[in-house]
Specification:
The protein is built from seven helices and 14 strands. By secondary structure, the chain is an alpha+beta fold. Helix 4 runs antiparallel to helix 5 and helix 5 runs antiparallel to helix 6. The protein starts with a strand and ends in a 13-residue tail after the last helix.
Length: about 325
């Protein structure tokens, strides 16, 4: 059973490998909305195959397309300060045959990439260096990584068409966190538990192994409330220190806090990793830890089939407006 939803990301743009984010209204004298529209349209000409890195393209040339990811952009259009597009994403060789209502209508697709269509929205501020990217999810699939990777690759290719390499643009994304959604998922998720781990090195010192693993249910009296308080503290402290390396909550600090919730009998075990583990209604297991909090946010819309596009955009807009103030993003979203 497929479930449909969306994830929200803040995005920034950098010139090449530089570390200073650019004002989105002025990327080398051109607003990034125009650059992004051009790059997305370039990705609609053919199918982008493989991983958009030098190593990924080398593997493609060596082994062929079978088993490789595939992506194609369609229906790119600008609406006020947003770009709206659709993205086909799949993998070559993931299915052998498309079957119809009778055998004669079957089609061999073993050499094709069976794909799903994902809607995408990029929203831009009037000024500032952070925008918002919304990507539709289908089950576990959310093609944000190949999308931004191929936009970067296309930008580099565009910059090297002449004899000299010109400016090219690197887009980076970070999932927008939602404190209330995080607490709701922990409180209402299935199979809620704490997991604490100690790693050791094998006798030959060739690799690390998970030596000790302790699991503790959140159903024990008081443990849920304590866990929620700890996770909220991670969220708030990390949000307040964004952009300050080493200033947020470390993994070691988080492990000590979770160990204290389980009890004093395990505090001397030299534990080195730990997380809150939950299972969402779609059966996806999520790990929540100080450096892995924003990956859990998927906003569910429907089952079996996607909602109509106006409803999809309205849901994205409503969630984005609620989150963007805390994320220090200022975007005037079109009503429709």
């Amino acid at each position: 059973m497929a479930t449909y939803g969306y994830r929200l990301f803040g995005f920034q743009v950098f010139r090449g490998n530089r570390r200073t984010a650019l004002d989105l209204s002025d990327c080398g004298g051109e607003p990034y909305v125009e650059i992004a529209e051009r790059l997305l349209k370039a990705l609609s000409v053919g199918t982008a195959i493989g991983d958009p890195t030098e190593q990924g393209q080398a593997r493609l040339e060596e082994s062929g397309a079978n088993g490789q990811p595939a992506m194609r952009v369609e229906e790119v259009r600008v609406v006020d300060n947003t770009i709206r597009a659709t993205v086909w994403a799949g993998k070559f060789g993931s299915h052998e045959k498309a079957i119809g209502d009778d055998a004669e209508s079957d089609s061999d697709i073993s050499d094709k990439a069976a794909s799903n269509l994902h809607r995408v929205v990029l929203a831009f501020p009037d000024e500032g260096d952070r925008g918002i990217l919304a990507v539709e999810t289908i089950g576990r699939s959310c093609p944000v990584a190949p999308l931004v990777g191929w936009m970067k690759k296309k930008s580099r290719e565009e910059a090297t068409q002449g004899s000299d390499e010109g400016a090219w643009w690197r887009i980076t994304v970070e999932a927008l966190a939602d404190e209330e959604r995080l607490a709701e998922m922990i409180r209402e998720g299935q199979a809620q538990k704490l997991v604490l781990v100690k790693h050791s090195v094998t006798a030959g010192r060739t690799r690390g192994i998970r030596d000790v693993e302790i699991t503790a249910s959140l159903a024990v009296t008081g443990r849920m409330d304590q866990t929620l308080a700890v996770v909220r503290d991670w969220y708030r402290r990390n949000k307040e220190t964004v952009g300050e390396p080493g200033a947020g909550v470390s993994t070691a600090q988080g492990v000590r806090q979770l160990a204290a919730i389980v009890g004093p009998q395990i505090e001397d075990l030299d534990l080195d990793d730990g997380w809150v583990e939950i299972e969402d209604p779609d059966g996806q297991v999520k790990r929540v830890k100080p450096d892995q909090m924003t990956e859990v946010f998927t906003y569910r819309l429907s089952e079996h089939q996607p909602v109509v596009t106006p409803s999809f955009y309205a849901a994205v807009r409503e969630t984005a407006l609620r989150l963007q103030v805390a994320a220090k993003i200022a975007i005037e979203w079109p009503v429709s």
